[in-house]
Fold this sequence. Notes:
The protein is α+β, with helices and mostly antiparallel strands. The protein has one domain: endopeptidase fold (from Nostoc punctiforme) (Alpha-Beta Complex). It has helices spanning 9-19, 48-58, 69-78, 154-157; strands at residues 30-33, 36-39, 81-83, 92-99, 105-114, 117-122, 127-132, 144-150. A 6-stranded antiparallel sheet has the order 3-8-4-5-6-7. A two-stranded antiparallel sheet has the order 1-2.
Amino acid sequence: MAQKVELNRFKNYMLMVNRSVGSELFRNLYASVDGEETDILRDGILSCAYFVSSVLFHCKLIDDLHTTVRGLEANLQRSGWKKIEEPKVGSVLIWEPTEFPDGGIRRHAGFYIGDAEAISNRTDQRVPKVHSMNFETEGKYRATEAIYWHENFDEADS
C-alpha cells in the first residue's frame, strides 16, 4: 500500500530562508542587455528581490522570479499574500526606499524570522544575512513599508 506523503510547506520554507544565510547562490543573474551579456544583479548588489522571489518560487508561493521589489510585490499581491500590521515568522518584508552610495534610490525585500530579526540580501556583503528587522543595530534605521503574509501559513501561525 502506498504511503501518503504530505510536505510541511511552512517548515521547509523556513528552513530554506534560514539556510540561505551566506549563500552566493543569489549573487548573479545574466541577461542579454542591448545584445551584451550582463550580470543584472551586479555581483550581488541588487539581489534582494531575486533572493526573496527565488525562495518563494521554489516553494510554489509565487509564479515567477523577480529582480525588482516592484515586480516581487505585484506577484505577492496576486499570489495570495496579504498585507498585515505586525510581522509573523515567515512574513515577507518590504522596506522603504533609501539612497545608496551610487546615487540609486531603492526599496528592499527580505524575510522576518522572529525576535525582531530578518534575513535579506546585504548589499555590502552581497549575500543573505541575519540583521535587525529595521537595521537599528546596524546603525542605518530603515522602516518597513509593507509586511506580507500568505494565507496558506495561517495554520503554522496558530
